[in-house]
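In this supplementary section we document a worked example of the pipeline. Step one takes a protein sequence of length 150 as its only input; no multiple sequence alignment statistics are reported here. Step two produces a three-dimensional model, which step three serialises into structure tokens for compact storage. The input and output of this example are shown verbatim.
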Amino acid sequence: MPPRKTMNTNWNKTYWTNTYRRTTQTGTHYPCNSPKYRLARDECQWRMGSYRNIYAQFAGGTRTCFSPAAANKWIRYVNNGVRVYKFNTNEFTRHFGTRMTYTTPTTARQYLRRKYGTWIKDVTRGNNNCWLVATTKNVTGRPFAQYNWT
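The serialised model returned by step three reads:
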């Protein structure tokens, strides 16, 4: 009776012919910078950037004006697919007008909703006099289109 065929995971050896051949895995491999990953990369970048913007409101200091309820509300925004942009006061007034320097978050939200539509979900002030703006991904106007998430 001839011996059985045995196989190794990396090399196949047939004992009947004593020939070796390298096995190849079936499947497609993509380079990491493939354009097929663009949507996934963009999604990860804005989600991580949004979480980072919210985390910065209550991390690293001894006091914050951001309550736990507000933090949870803004985290729910990101979980539901809303992007959270952070602007300091200079950037906010440069992009949205000088009258925004002394306005309340409610007034700023009303102004931005008139300008960009219902895609603006919420506006609030954060730590160190910064502004947080929650929008859906449909807002394509400036400054949202050129926002750097890193």
